[in-house]
Every structure is written in C-alpha cells, then in structure tokens.
Amino acid sequence: MTAQADEPQLRPRRQLPRPSPESQPFWDGCARRELLIQRCQPRGHYWFPPAGLCPRCWSADFTWTPASGRGEVFTFTVYRRAYAPELAGQLPYAVGIVQLAEGPRLITNIVDCAPEDIVVGMPVEVVFEDLADGVTLHAFRPRGDQH
Amino acid sequence: MYQRTAAIVGAAHSRIGEVPGSSSLGLMVDAAVGAVADAGLAPGDIDGVLVRGPDDEYCFHQQLGERLGLDVAWATTLDNGGASQTLSVVLAALAIEAGLATTVLCGYARDAWSRTRQTGSRSGRMNQSTHRRRREWRDSFGYFGEPATHALGARRHMSLFGTTKEQLGHVAVAQREHATRNPHAQMREPLTMADYLGARLVAEPFGVYDCSLRTDAGAAVVVTTTERARDLPHTPVIVRGFGSHNNLSGWTSGEHMVETAARQSGERAYRMADVAPADINVAQLYDCFTYMVLAQIEDYGFCAKGEGGQFVASGALRLDGAIPTNTSGGQLSEGHVEGMLQIVEGVRQLRHEYPVDRQVPDARLALVSGHGGNTVCHTTLILERG
Asked: Which listed residue, B6, B86, B103, B244, has the most CB atoms within 10 A of its CB?
C-alpha cells in the first residue's frame, strides 16, 4: 500500500481479521501499538503466528513479550493483479515476509516505500494502522538507522 | 528394503484443457478406464484405488469405486496437494510389496477450468478454522493466491543468487516448445522470450506465463507386480526407487523456499534406486510455477544450488539439453493435472512411445516429482525402463 499509514484504510469487511482466543492478545497489542509475540518460559523461544504452544519444545508455558518492532525484509512480492474487486484500487501493493530481530517471521505489508525500491534485507520497523471496525493492523516501513 | 516389486503397466488421460460439461468424477472415470485398458487388464483385476480429486469432494476414492464397481483391499483419497500423485505410486508400491494388494489404480482429476466459469470460490471449500486462520494472517494483508506464495520464493532466490526474470522465462519457453509438438496440450501456440517478458504481471516477479494452467482433465496409471508386468502388452516401467520429504514447519521457515523439500526427497530416492543425478535421462518436475522447476533442478543435483538460472538459460531443459524436462509441456503448457500427467509422461518416455521429435533418445531412467501440501511436501519417483 502506498497510502499514508495514519489514514484509516477502507478494507473490505470480509478481509478484517477475526481473532481467536489464542490470538486475541496479539490484536489487543496492535490496538495499543505494541507488537507482542509469544515466548516460551523454559527455553526462551519466540514464535509467530500465535499458537497455544511453542513449536520447538511444545511447552504451553509462555508469555506475551513486546518485540522491538525492528526487522528486515526476508522476501516480498508486489501484487499487480487484484484478487478481489475491492483490491483493484490498491494496486500495486507489497506483501512481505519480515524477519523480526527476535527471530520469528511474519506476513505483512511493506509501506511508505515505492514497490521498486523494496529489497531483500532492507531494515524495517513496525507501524500500526487503524482500520474500520476497531481493528488495528501492523505494517512495516523502511527504517532509517542501520542497527 | 524395497525390492523393486512394483511396475507401472498402464497410463492414460482424459481430454485435457477446456472441456465444458465435464465433472471431476467423469474425467477420473475416463482416465481410469483408459489406464486399465492400456494395461491390458480387466476391471476385476483392480484391488487398490489411490486417487485424489478436488478438495471439496469427500472420499473421491469411494465415488470413483462406486462408478467402477470396485470392492478392493487397498484404497484411500490423498490429501497432500501436488505431492499426492507421486505419493500414491509410492503407497501402491509399498502395498504391493507387503502383499496387501496386487494391482493398484492411481489417479487425479479436476474440472479446474470449468470451475473458473462458475461463481464462488476457485480453490474449493476450506474448513472453518483454516479459513479463519487464512483470513487473519493472510487475507488481512491482501495476501491471496498461489502465485504470490511461490513469487516470495523466486524473489529470495533472485536476491541470494542473482537469478533473473529472463532465466525463469527459459523454463516457460522450453516447456511451451515441448507442448507445441503435443497434440493433447492445452497451450500449443509458440511462446517467445519477448512474449514471456511482455506478459501481464500477477505477483512480481511472476507474469501469466510463470503460472500453471487451469485445466479440465484426469489422468491415471496402474501399478502391479514387476513379475506380472512382463506378461502385459507394454514394456514395464519399474518403480526403481522413491523418497519423500515434508517441511511441515512451513514455506517461510528456514530456507525452505530456496532449498526445497526436493533435496532431501531426491537424496532418499537416489539412494534407494542406487543412481546419481547424472544417470537420469529425463525429468518430469512438478511445475506449479516456473520458479519451482528451477529450484528443483538445483535440489535434484542437476546443477549446484544458485546456478539454476544459468543452467536453464543454457537450454538444459530442451529435448536435446542436459536434462530434458517436462517433455510434454508440463503444467505450464500441457495442462495442470496436479502432477499426474508428469507420471504419465515419464512412463511414455521410458516406453519409447514417441516419434523422434518428442522422444528422449534411449531413455532408461526418469525422475518424476510431486510438490505441494501447502507448498512444503515433496515425493520423488525414480522410474526405470524394464
């Protein structure tokens, strides 16, 4: 998306996330502009997306931990075809896999950047976008500093 | 240790392409009847059914068995996406070797082109919880469709190794060239590199010619004992070895989109078959997208990881190339039958059925791959002319 991150996007109702009990804390965090990820107590593994147990050691003993919000682009693609009529007005837009500094990777949008300027390895930082219906989504924009 | 007990003795497909009025079940029946006839067998000979249809069809094996009047020892419908069809041949071979069945029908059919003409979901119904998770973690970000998923892999490969769009184009162009000589192929018009580079973009770097087709078709093979195969009309195609690998942790985990499950699957198959990449005469590689062919060429050891772009650009996939690949056009040009046509083509090449402009000379060993199951599951067959 090339629109400003601080304007509510008119995202179709059917695409808004419907949280589950296990993911609700994540979305609540987004609404407070916090990127929360789960971390297991025994070994300190991080994971994403939200799930009831650590995918590495299967422990269900975890905490929701604020992530730094920093990451880098692991890979990305730029949509040129609209997969739903409502998306046509947003083309071209970038979907990326961002690898957080803490390790997990997440699917997101790369914003505030021309699609042709996105590169694998680009440092990014999280931004939050309030949508209709009280939903807040994360996205990532290029990060100025190189740390 | 697998004793090479199984051989493919029959192979057939239905009409391929745009078949208005077709149904998945009807296409599967056509292919099944054709494969059993091709094998020189009768309905009563079949004692195993391993098939797959659209994801919204329940127990496709039972629906097929009801049409064909089959009460059999060994049967199921597979649910491993594009890795299902090669896996069905593996399961047939294992059942035959274990003495649970003697003659197994393996197949796939889907009226995918006709479904694009209907309203509603293209990809079939997902259950509620899968749908909810997709909506939450994908749809919300405008992430839809298989092209984008594989485009993410292509982009990372390009970044790590300098692979270019034009190199991906060599896959599309080579396979279309094979299809121009295939009277059954869905796409038979020549495709130039200029056509490929000028194509409408879908999800970068992919354009329309990077993507496999939507096809109405069914295809099937019959697997039986190597011993029995020798009494049947065609040269037996022996299942010499196989392997599988499944990166269930996900496409975006590790480096699974750059070094795919084909690598470990291939290593297991080569080891079981006691052959090396250099011994393979023809490859039928699961080609949902151009990028997946390039990645598998590397993962199967036909060239080093990262060198696939240069390798395919050198003409390696052509009939006269280092590793003739998808020689009837593949899913990019012949038709997308979830890898089942690749098994059929592997069999036909090893039978030496083709005129000289389509036949890999003296083909003895074929490698056939299946890839899918949310992009991470993979099964490899190594077939040998008997």
From this structure: B86
